[in-house]
Design brief:
The chain is of the alpha+beta class and 470 residues long. The chain has 4 domains: 111 residues, Trypsin-like serine proteases (Thrombin, subunit H, Beta Barrel); 102 residues, Thrombin, subunit H, CATH 2.40.10.10; 99 residues, Pdz3 Domain (Roll), CATH 2.30.42; 117 residues, Alpha-Beta Barrel (N-terminal domain of MutM-like DNA repair proteins), CATH 3.20.190.20. It is built from 12 helices and 27 strands. Strands 20, 21, 22, 23, 24, 25, 26 and 27 form an 8-stranded antiparallel beta sheet that branches. The chain has a 6-stranded antiparallel beta barrel with strand order 1-2-3-6-5-4. Strand 2 and strand 3 form a beta hairpin. Helix 9 runs antiparallel to helix 10. The longest helix is centred in the middle third of the chain and has 14 residues. It is flat. The relative contact order is 0.10. One of its GO terms (molecular function) is serine-type endopeptidase activity.
Length: 470
Amino acid sequence: MTTTKQSLNEIARRMMSGVVQIHVEGYLEEDIQSVLNPSIKIPGIWSGSGFFVKHKNLEGYIVTNAHVVRNAVKIEISSMLTSEERFETEVVGMVKQLEPDVALIKLTKEELARFKKMAIQPIEYLTLQKGANPPRGEAIKAIGYPLGMIEPNMTGGEITNFISGSEFTTERFVTNAAINPGNSGGPSINKNGEVVGLNTAVIVDAENIGFITPASFIKIIIKNLLLLNEPHFAGLGGKLQKNAENFNPFLKQSRAKGVIVSKVLKKGFLEAAKIQPRDVILSINQVEFDRHGIVIGKEGLYRHKNIFDVMKLVPIGEEVEIGYLREGKVQRTKAKAMPNPELGIISNPILSERKYLEVFGMVIQPLSFEIIQAIQEVDPYAQIEMLKILDEEKPMLVVTHIHQGTQADEMEWPLGELIIKANEEEVHTLDDLQKILDKNKGKNVLLECMSGVIGYFQVESESKAADSKD
């Protein structure tokens, strides 16, 4: 019996039945007002794409982009297998900071049973690519529901380039396959019927340039989400700088190879491995790096996979071997992979998770990257001041909104002030500040800011830290 090899078009048409449209009701997170004053929420509706993923014995699990379901209140899917019927889903977990932009959702038990009963054929579960990344020029098909179309769309192209990750970002593939709004979260598939990655983004005003999140990252995220409900990537736990030939006599190196450790963070991976500042990291698990931190050789010519990409794909808890240079001697050490230690200034993009205190006519929140970005739109100078404290180990409190005709308005407190003391006591969290307010009901409280600005406020009534409720 002979079998006919299917074309990429035929394979894509078959896999198309595993791709779903995602319908979302939620809040528009990019609205500056809601970032600076979490009591303000701007409702909206939008759509995206996703696909049923094959993972062990799981049923009804769907991969999509985190930005599709982030700040969602209600999520439904529809599929070409079930006409225009919609089915409710729930979020298993997501990469909240969108690096990489991946989320996992699932049909509830009841909805999965209803879906299977109505479907005209069994669900097509798509397989994530195994092994090495695709080479440049490999043909792919991107599948999704762009611009709210009710039927799945298929566009052809190839892998055209690669973008390395960094301390804060993850690797992406570049493609010339058309990826439009609404396509986000759909799969890009190859001739073997495997998902090479997740359609993630398109550059506005650029032609034929789209980004794909590699399948290797999706795999590790699914594993972490199922175990922890929130993914954590392995991090180096320190700062690096490029090596150079000028350092040869100082570092006692024969030539510039590997990257220099400029800072070791407390309770991080490098500290656990007993790596010190001015050590030169030459390799991780036998993968060697040049002076720019780029992988040497293993990924082929013209690839810029780097030390951050390599580290992020090591499962948390797995032992990692580091080759390094110290005082001219090549040495090796080991430590278990772990997430980077969390600093005081974090990212908090989920509206419902934001906490704030409304007191003296102002909104006070823990400082986050989202707040820094929003304040930049209002006062670029304040944003520059905030960027100076990103490496603070403890949280910071920031004034993000002033109500007119209130105590804070009368004292002309500016937006973006960082509160560091209350009645001469250091405050880093809303709970710290709340305790001092509770002890001084009916009295006055002196607030002091990092800039030196002070405020003397009457505590008129009980004020409690609030969650940004849906």
